[in-house]
Design brief:
This protein is of the alpha/beta class. The protein is built from 10 helices and 26 strands. It has helices at residues 39-48, 63-69, 101-107, 109-114, 133-143, 158-161, 205-217, 223-226, 252-261, 265-271, and strands spanning 5-10, 31-32, 36-37, 53-57, 83-87, 119-124, 127-129, 147-155, 172-177, 180-186, 193-204, 237-241, 246-248, 287-288, 293-299, 304-305, 308-314, 319-320, 325-327, 330-331, 336-337, 342-344, 346-348, 353-354, 359-361, 368-370. The strands form 6 sheets. Strands 15, 17, 19, 20, 22, 23, 25 and 26 form an 8-stranded parallel β-sheet that branches. A hairpin with a 3-residue loop joins strand 2 (31-32) and strand 3 (36-37). The longest helix is centred in the middle third of the chain and has 13 residues, at 205-217. The chain is globular, with a radius of gyration of 21 Å. The termini are far apart.
C-alpha cells in the first residue's frame, strides 16, 4: 500500500524565516547536522518508507538544490519509472512565480493526473525528523479520513509568532477531538502547548487534484487557508501526532540551537534512527594534529583540527588552526579559522575565513552570523 504513495516536497516554504541563510539557497538546501541538508530528512524518510516517486516543486534559488540532489542516485531515486523529479519555477503570463501550494500543484496538474499512485504525501523541509510515512499512511487509511495532517504538541516558537509574514498563513494549530480536526487556526498567538501543524499531509491523489482545481479556479493560493479551513465540515480531516525527535527551523537562533542539540547522544540517535542519505563528497577522514584538544564535537569528513574545539558542529572541510579556540559554534563547509583566533557562539556560512588572532563572540541568545565568503 505504501508503494502507491506519491511524495511531493515544497523546498521554499519558510525561506523568509532565515533570510541570512536563504539569500542564495532555499530552506531545503540549508546545511544541517554537519554533513546533511534539510531536504535530506524528508527525502530519506520517504525513501525509507517505500515511496519512490517523489517530486520537488522549487520556487526560487533552486540551483544549490539541483546540485545537491542531482539525479537522486544517493537516495536510490535515479529510476526510469518514478524516481526523483525536480520542477523548476513556473510563472504566469504576468511573470509572477507561484506563491502557495495550490498554485504550485495546479501548475503540474497534468503530471499529477498521469501518475498511478493512489495516495499523495505533501511535506515541507523546515523540520528535520525521522518520519515514518508508512505508519502515517496506514493511520490515514485506518481512520477513513479524507485528509490526515501531522502535528506536534509544543509551545509555539516566539520567532514564528513575531514573524512579519502574517498575511502568508505561515503556521497552523488545530483543535482535535477523537483524532478529528474540528477547528484550524492561522497564525495564532496562544501560549502553552499547542497542536502545532507540521505541514505534512496525506490524502488520495484524485481528491487532491479535485481540491486543487476547484480552489485554483476560485483564486485559492494556500492549501491550508483556502482549502482545509473552509472544508472542515465537508471533509473528514484527521490528525496524526508525531511523537519522535524533531528539529524545527524557525529563525537563526533555532537553527543554532537545533544543531547544538545534536551534540547530545540521545538526540543524535533519535534523529538518525533510520538511515539519512545525502550527496557524497569524497574526502579524507578528519585529521587531529598533535596539540589539538577536542571535546563534544560533531565533525564531518575532511576537517583539519590543530586547535581547541569544544561543543561545536563542524561541516565538511573545516580547518581550525594551531592555537585557535573555538567553542559553541556551527561552522559550515570549508570554513577556515586561522591560528590564534577565538570564536564563541558563532555560525559561519560556507567558505568563511576568520583570520589570525581575531576574536569573534556571540551569546547563547544571539549567535553571531558570518556570511558566505566573508573575511574577518
Amino acid at each position: 500500500m505504501v508503494n502507491s504513495a506519491l511524495g511531493i516536497i515544497f523546498p521554499n516554504q519558510y525561506d523568509e524565516l532565515v533570510p541570512e541563510l536563504t539569500s542564495e539557497r532555499l530552506m531545503a538546501s540549508i546545511p544541517f547536522a554537519s554533513r546533511y541538508r534539510m531536504i535530506d530528512f524528508a527525502l530519506s524518510s520517504m525513501v525509507n518508507s517505500g515511496i519512490t516517486n517523489i517530486s520537488v516543486l522549487a520556487r526560487q534559488n533552486y540551483h544549490s538544490l539541483m546540485d545537491h540532489l542531482g539525479s537522486g542516485r544517493e537516495w536510490d531515486l535515479a529510476r526510469k519509472n518514478g524516481g526523483l523529479t525536480i520542477w523548476p519555477p513556473f510563472a504566469e503570463k504576468s511573470m509572477n512565480v507561484y506563491r502557495g501550494r495550490i498554485e504550485a500543484l495546479d501548475h503540474i496538474i497534468g503530471f499529477l493526473k498521469a501518475q498511478k499512485e493512489k495516495y499523495v504525501i505533501l511535506s515541507d523541509t523546515n523540520i528535520a525528523a525521522s518520519f515514518d510515512f508508512k505508519d502515517f499512511i496506514q493511520a490515514h487509511i485506518d481512520s477513513g479520513a479524507d485528509v490526515t495532517c501531522a502535528y506536534t504538541v509544543q509551545p509555539l516558537p516566539e520567532s514564528i509568532m513575531s514573524a512579519k509574514l502574517m498575511n502568508k498563513g505561515m503556521y497552523y494549530t488545530y483543535d482535535i477531538e477523537d483524532g478529528v480536526v474540528k477547528k484550524m487556526y492561522i497564525n495564532p498567538q496562544e501560549k502553552g502547548d499547542q497542536n502545532f501543524g507540521m505541514n505534512i499531509y496525506c490524502m488520495e491523489r484524485d481528491l487532491m487534484i479535485k481540491l486543487v482545481r476547484d480552489s485554483y479556479m476560485q483564486g485559492g493560493v494556500y492549501f491550508e487557508r483556502d482549502v482545509l479551513l473552509h472544508k472542515l465540515d465537508e471533509l473528514k480531516v484527521c490528525a496524526y501526532q508525531f511523537k519522535g525527535y524533531y528539529g524545527r527551523i524557525s529563525d537563526m537562533k533555532a537553527y543554532f540551537d537545533e544543531n547544538m542539540r545534536l551534540l547530545e547522544e540521545e538526540n543524535l540517535e533519535a534523529l538518525f534512527s533510520q538511515p539519512v542519505y545525502t550527496k557524497l563528497r569524497d574526502d579524507n577522514p578528519t585529521r587531529y594534529f598533535d596539540g589539538a584538544v577536542v571535546k563534544n564535537v560533531m565533525a564531518a569528513d575532511g576537517c583539519v583540527i590543530e586547535g581547541n574545539v569544544e561543543n561545536c558542529v563542524l561541516f565538511r572541510g573545516v580547518k581550525i588552526g594551531k592555537g585557535a579556540v573555538v567553542k559553541n559554534c556551527v561552522l559550515m563547509q570549508d570554513t577556515i579559522v586561522e591560528e590564534g583566533a577565538v570564536l564563541d557562539h558563532i555560525i559561519t556560512d560556507k567558505n568563511a575565513l576568520i583570520t589570525e588572532g581575531k576574536e569573534v563572540r556571540g551569546t547563547d541568545t544571539f549567535p553571531v552570523f558570518v556570511a558566505k565568503y566573508q573575511v574577518i
